Amino acid sequence: MVRAAVHSFARRAATVQPRHIRRGDGAMSDVESSINNILQFKPNPTTTAYKFYYRLAVQYKLYNNAFAFPVWNESTGKLEAIYNINATEIKLLEYQGELFCKFKFINGKSYTMPYADILHIGSMFADNDIFGSDNEALTPVLKTANTFNQSMGKFAELVAVIR
C-alpha cells in the first residue's frame, strides 16, 4: 500500500518539465542554455530526466529528504550534470563553521562534501531544521495496516474455500 502510494507520487513527479527562466521587466522568459537540456532531458550521462526525478521523488517520500549533486565545469563554470545521491547513511558534520554532509553508500565507500554544494529537498522539519523528521511515527500505523491486509487476504481465501 505504501509502495503503491510512493510509486504513484513518483510517477507524477517524474513528469515535471523544469526550466531555466529569468524574470525581468515584469515578465518571465526562458533562458536558452544547456541547463534546460540537463533539467528536461538528460541530467547526466547515465540516466533520463524521468528516472532522475522519479528517484528524487521516491527518496523524498520515503525519507523526507532527497539529495542530488550538481557537477560544474571548472573552466567554464557551466552546469554539466546532476546526479542523484542514493546513500545508505547521511551524517551532518560541522567544521570551522561550515556544514558538511557525509554520505555512506552500499559499496561501503563514504564521501564528504560541503552542504552548500548539494541540492537538498526536505520536509517534516519538526525535529531537525536541516534534515527534517524521519517517518518512524508512521511505523505503528503501517504495521497495523499490513496486519489488517494480511488478515483480509486470509479471510478472502477462507471464503473462497467455503464456496
| Relative helix content | 25-40%
Tell me the radius of gyration: 21 Å
Run of helices and strands: HEEHHEEEEEEH
- Structural class assignment: alpha+beta
**Mean model confidence by pLDDT:** 81
Shape summary: globular
Low-confidence stretches: none
As laid out across the biggest beta sheet, the strand order is 4-3-8
Short overview:
This protein is 36% helix and 28% strand. The protein is α+β, with helices and mostly antiparallel strands and 163 residues long.
Task: Tell me what you see in this structure.
The protein has helices at residues 2-13, 34-40, 49-63, 139-162; strands at 21-24, 27-30, 65-72, 79-85, 89-95, 98-104, 110-114, 119-122. With 163 residues, it is an alpha+beta fold. Strand 5 (89-95) and strand 6 (98-104) form a beta hairpin. The mean pLDDT is 81.
Supply database-style keywords.
alpha+beta; three-stranded antiparallel sheet; 163 residues; 28% strand; 8 strands; 36% helix; 4 helices
List the helices and strands and how they pair.
Elements: H1 2-13, E1 21-24, E2 27-30, H2 34-40, H3 49-63, E3 65-72, E4 79-85, E5 89-95, E6 98-104, E7 110-114, E8 119-122, H4 139-162
Antiparallel strand pairs: 1-2, 3-4, 3-8, 5-6, 6-7
Helix pairs in contact: 1-3
